[in-house]
Amino acid sequence: MNGKKLHCGIIGAGRIGRVHAETLAFRLPESQLLAIADLNREAAQAVAARCNIPKVAASPTEIIADPEIDAVLICSPTATHVDLIVQAAQAGKHIFCEKPIAFSLQKIDDALAAVNTAGVLLQIGFNRRFDANFVRVRQAVASGEIGVPNLLHIVSRDPAPPPLSYIRSSGGIFLDMTIHDFDMARFLVGDEVEEIYTAGGVMVDPAIGEAGDLDTALVVLRFRNGVIGTIDNSRKAVYGYDQRVEVFGSKGKIATENVYPNQATISTCKSVSTDLPLNFFMERYTESFVLELQAFIQAVIEQRPTPVSGMDGRIPVVMALAARKSFDEHRPVRLEEISA
Amino acid sequence: MNGKKLHCGIIGAGRIGRVHAETLAFRLPESQLLAIADLNREAAQAVAARCNIPKVAASPTEIIADPEIDAVLICSPTATHVDLIVQAAQAGKHIFCEKPIAFSLQKIDDALAAVNTAGVLLQIGFNRRFDANFVRVRQAVASGEIGVPNLLHIVSRDPAPPPLSYIRSSGGIFLDMTIHDFDMARFLVGDEVEEIYTAGGVMVDPAIGEAGDLDTALVVLRFRNGVIGTIDNSRKAVYGYDQRVEVFGSKGKIATENVYPNQATISTCKSVSTDLPLNFFMERYTESFVLELQAFIQAVIEQRPTPVSGMDGRIPVVMALAARKSFDEHRPVRLEEISA
Amino acid sequence: MNGKKLHCGIIGAGRIGRVHAETLAFRLPESQLLAIADLNREAAQAVAARCNIPKVAASPTEIIADPEIDAVLICSPTATHVDLIVQAAQAGKHIFCEKPIAFSLQKIDDALAAVNTAGVLLQIGFNRRFDANFVRVRQAVASGEIGVPNLLHIVSRDPAPPPLSYIRSSGGIFLDMTIHDFDMARFLVGDEVEEIYTAGGVMVDPAIGEAGDLDTALVVLRFRNGVIGTIDNSRKAVYGYDQRVEVFGSKGKIATENVYPNQATISTCKSVSTDLPLNFFMERYTESFVLELQAFIQAVIEQRPTPVSGMDGRIPVVMALAARKSFDEHRPVRLEEISA
Amino acid sequence: MNGKKLHCGIIGAGRIGRVHAETLAFRLPESQLLAIADLNREAAQAVAARCNIPKVAASPTEIIADPEIDAVLICSPTATHVDLIVQAAQAGKHIFCEKPIAFSLQKIDDALAAVNTAGVLLQIGFNRRFDANFVRVRQAVASGEIGVPNLLHIVSRDPAPPPLSYIRSSGGIFLDMTIHDFDMARFLVGDEVEEIYTAGGVMVDPAIGEAGDLDTALVVLRFRNGVIGTIDNSRKAVYGYDQRVEVFGSKGKIATENVYPNQATISTCKSVSTDLPLNFFMERYTESFVLELQAFIQAVIEQRPTPVSGMDGRIPVVMALAARKSFDEHRPVRLEEISA
What we know:
4 copies of one chain form a homotetramer.
Chain A: E1 6-11, H1 15-27, E2 31-37, H2 41-51, E3 55-56, H3 60-65, E4 71-74, H4 78-90, E5 94-97, H5 105-118, E6 122-124, H6 132-142, E7 149-157, H7 164-168, H8 173-189, E8 193-201, H9 206-210, E9 216-223, E10 228-234, E11 242-249, E12 252-256, E13 264-267, E14 272-274, H10 281-284, H11 286-302, H12 310-329, E15 333-334
Parallel strand pairs in A: 1-2, 1-4, 2-3, 4-5, 5-6, 7-10
Antiparallel strand pairs in A: 7-11, 8-9, 8-15, 9-10, 11-12, 13-14
Helix pairs in contact in A: 1-2, 4-5, 5-12, 6-8, 8-12
């Protein structure tokens, strides 16, 4: 490693790239951001200016080749992830990569093989694992506070669907949206899913259906340890971003509520009400973005496994493929049916 | 009808029979309770004494034959329901019958045919429809307050499993426990289910599994109108009776919380806590037992349809049979596959 | 006593008289209601018909003189309380009397002396002591669950002011409305107040001010044991009946919320809301009216002290007089300054 | 001003100085931190290293004299505030000063006069005005959402008393702790208090009483516009930092709850509970420290009045003196009785 601070480069200056750049620049003094690259050079320059990044690289390759850089953050579109992971691994860089690694298991396996061969560290951007609510739920399960878990429920509804153009290239709701919940399910229960059953439909916008996707889904998970879970997804919750989980076990349950911009309740002659919950994942999960990078940097500095491994990136993709297959074939699908 | 008050007889002086007797005696002045019968004559006498019922009948038949009686409440074991319904209908009595009507669709159809032929009124004891929480949710759906419904969740967990002896003769969790939730699902959504998928297991007590039953179940409902619903059942929630629903729609969601014995919150150096929710269905649903009888009596007095018809009693049994079939065959089952 | 059931007579067939009549008739089998009287004979007849009371007495005196009657419930206007208490005591009847006993301490003392001389039992109608929320708070204080109490807050706001005609004869806000809170303060803390400071104003309706009364008040209580308390009163809370308390102590706090008609929360694009709290004291305190009478009847049957004694009726009147004096003289007033 | 970024110097590298340094360094790119000074040079150096501050000044005077510096943040002990304000004003620096300005009105007036003469901007560090909860309450009052305000309640309890050494030099509870609540009261109601009545005691630790101070206080405020308010202070709430307000008005009420580290609820066989609220003002008010500095910097850059003026710093001191006088003299005290 280059000195006491971890030297980082960022590939991708879009929304999430900017968030990570700001985190590294302003919140994590144990890191130093040396370079950023983006096909949209202006975007990269804007982030560099805001975050005091000394270099705007001409290409991802330039960042990956920079001997001063210890770790790269891959925040570019999904289709580029695997190539960049392979290059970065071969260059001996530690890697933080946004989810999903890829839509194809074969490509994911290529990436993981390269990481494995190179012996570098890889962390996947499942930031929600670092959210205070879900950390607390995991802790309750892991510590036995609620006994042996029996049932899990995840509600994960977006405030509004993304543009159709995005949906068309998103890989579908399961790879784009539910994938976070698949990861959450594994994280909270601490075990693997072996079978998935999916019910779903097009209830928000017929155009999403015409694009071959669903906008509403109910996924049932059966874990190896017997736990039964559900994931409830909708592309449109008019009241805002709805992100809740509940785990029920032999000694109790733990359930989380949404996060609100304030803790005020207003009583009038019409109702007792609060303002709407936080509406946007960037606000709702702000702190988790900081914590996931902090964990990555710590893992690299201390040379120990990252908290969200390459396999943690692969398995939710398998689950997404199984969920879609279940929907298409209208039957429960075992994960072992899905192969690279 | 005999005079201005509705004259009633009760068959069965067990737990629910006693509740209904007290309701008629002390809460509903528009009714008058003339007789009660139970195989356990002492039980019938005790209820009669407490509720000022003038006659302890020697048998159900004596009640059904009594010309002074306008309506009978059938609160005896499930196995006796159909015969009593048929007898009562033939005698021209209006009938309030506890759920389920029977475990066999053929027998249910016999009962409904007798009721239909006789032209008497029949109400099934799905009391939860009269609970203030669920009434409020139904109102939100029916009025369009939350738009077009998309997703429904019912959590219905008992504080503790019944004795094994009860479980063995209960017809199984779907006919004994989930049946209330099947009714609730239809009531809240206002439409019919066409397909059911069941996941479940034995997580509470292996002895329940040895008795051929489940103690934990997750049932997925697909309604004709596209709504997807889940029912979450457990025989054992250590924190008490857990009865919640949520309906999510195009304009919002409505969700209910459990009912608590008080509205106090205690903050100490360890936690911020409340007492446990009401632990027992008799406490939790007290008021609904009054309101269902009031609705029955009103329907009879005004000679209009009861709010929970014979078909409302039949369909949840079909759903229970489909749920079990789905579990056994490990696939989604359409309700039309279930026949008498 | 006359037989195993307590024989009661009710004086006053107004709102609260009717509530008590229904309670005795339908909820408390250990009592029997023999007679009712009211200047408005029609009102008495209506209640008698509804509650199966065999006799409508021509006057309170007729009830008090009835040898079959063990106990009388005095539900007539405040101005009549003392005379009726004295008469009933002299006739050897046990007495349940609505609050306040009287507006004059001298008259109250006359009543208490008569009760004392006769050796009959007297209970004052401070029903809120029997409300599940306040019982829970008292229990937390008495058991030491929140340690030594330091601070107490009572919020007690009515949904709307009573008619001006009522206000003019009410004795003023402190004797009419705050008196319940004075009792609650003593009940919750379990100690006596020694000094009162009052701030207040006319914020709801100028006509109330013109009638010489306040409609908004903030009363500070200093207890002998050092606890400092506040009472917050308003005649008009547009969102409904607002009845909350909080006790803060060395080991924690306990606070109660309002009571709602249902436990549903509705989320829309505008807000997350619930329906308004119960709006009327009859709904909010329904169960407490039953429990206070049950306690009275039990006390009489078992010949032990009632839970709300004559002194419990006198002290809040002293407090009300002190509160008014504090407001008039704009200074803290010690209760010992108030004499009969 | 020096260039497009506001150049700042910080005087005081204690707890709050460090917080402000980090905010300027990492959260507010519109500012640049040039120098820091502290009697404890090591402390200053540590903050400088962490926050990339180029200079550790030998004394406050060196910072005030630095022509590159536009604004100084005074985070040193209260006793030094006035001298530093006067010096800084005379040097033409804009000033952010922690609360309270001073314990003596005469000295405060000297400071304000110097600021006034110099024409510089001054902001006092009442950070809670920038907390999302209290901003929301103020907005509800200012917009008329709850109508004309009638009653105000502020609960402000610390998790544990500070060391006795601190208490001895703190100026007493009213100048040290309640002063925040006096500011909050004025901010929320948007009007001035004209009279104060104080009840209080020593309930937490007798040593605090021996030091001549109170540890528990209940302050009643009467505003010019008729609003009546209370402030409830305790030095020790075992369940954590308790910071709530409620405003009740002619069209409703708005009330805030505490802030929690997560939104999880755990139900077990003993209780339904949550973790404790945030325990420390630094966690509870984190965001408000950022927002107050942002507002200060914006005001300076745009040369418009700061949101918390010098008079906003003076008036709470008057209120604190009145509160203490009321406690000592056991009577309501008008603010006009307090003079410099």
